Amino acid sequence: MADQPDPRIGATEPETLPEPAAEPRNTLAARRRRWLTILVVAIVAIGLLATLYHFVIGVRHVSTDNAYVGADTAQVTPLVAGAVESVRVQNTQAVRQGDILVTIDPADARIAAERARADFLQAQRQFAQNRATGSALEAQVGARGEDIARAEAEQIVAQANYDKARVDLSRREGLAKSGAVSGDELTVARTAFAAAKAQLVVAKAAIAQAQATRRAATQSFAANQALTRGSVADNPEVAAARSRYDAAQLDLKRTVIRAPFDGVVAQRTAQVGQRVAPGTSIMTVVPVASMYVDANFKEGQLRRVKIGQPVRLTSDLYGGGTVYHGRVVGLSGGTGSAFALIPAQNATGNWIKVVQRLPVRISLDPKELADHPLRVGLSMTATIDVDGE
Q: Distance between CA atoms of 71 and 69, rounded to whole angstroms?
């Protein structure tokens, strides 16, 4: 086997680079101490700033991001039943107070109003007729008085005739014993006396009848006076008919449903041709110009919160660059869990304390709301200045 040449023969050895000089240990230690000092100073400075912020600013403010925009929305409901004739608005549409939202077919309400108007006019005419009848009844009362006077006069005449007939009969009966008066003459005297007596009875009966007729006329007149006492506006029948007419007119007016205030339409369910009943919600109007915020603060944050304190708020919608200014206007009467549909039951063996939150109502500046409108349910961050007034 031939000898192999040595690969190292004729090869040039690589050039050896000089190793860097080792850094002195004292320089590294000094650098570490410097960075450590800087770190300690930074931590101390941060701690001092945090402490300063807490005692100067932090103790004067309580904050939460568990806050949401709310508003006293209006549930638009018809006050009369009927079929929807037209719907003038859509969801998200802005409306002004008094704008027409929905119209209900007014045919039935118009007929009812016309019928009520006719009844009202009839009641007025009936009152005028009763008042005219009162004058006639008053005249009848006077006429019945004249009848009584005439009957009393007739009684006087009948009484005189009776007395005369009685005297004549008595005289003739006395003469008849001596034969001076014939039997026929005595019979005539007796007949005249009987007739005079009967006429007196008739005269007395006529007086009684005239008096009874006058009493009836007087009572009729009194009843008529009770019905027509006062003006036409004070008459009960006329007032009742007027109230029915006003109610019918109001129902006719209510067939046109208008916006209760400025706002935005939401949850519109009304459709043309749909028959609606009184009290059925057909849409909601949200008052975007008069909203508030319900901020849920932890119970430990409420120690110094009072009504009237100023609040700074920011919205996730506009970011931290837009700041709203408000005031605390009220604190809820209980926590959210206390008013839940199924309240938390803490009397159990596995009870764990959970920090409760209490809703705080915060009013907003209307001008700021007009410049940067909000919507119900948006998230807010609220910070209360507990030292502010």
A: 7
Provide the token pair at 379.
């998230």
Domain limits for position 212: 109-250
Cβ distance 285 to 264 under 8 Å? yes
Q: Where are the alpha helices (DSSP H) in the chain?
A: 25-56, 107-176, 183-228, 236-253, 366-371
- Phi, psi of 136, deg, nearest 5: -65, -40
Amino acid identity at 265: V
The DSSP 8-state label assigned to residue 199 in this structure reads: H
Q: Quick: pLDDT tens for 152-181.
A: 888 888 888 888 888 877 777 777 766 666
Q: Is residue 326 part of a domain?
A: yes
Mark whether 319 and 241 lie in a shared domain: no
Verdict on whether the full-model pTM lies above 0.85: no
At 177-219, the pLDDT tens digits run 666 667 777 787 788 888 888 888 888 888 888 778 878 777 7
Asked if residue 198 and residue 125 are part of one domain, the reply reads yes
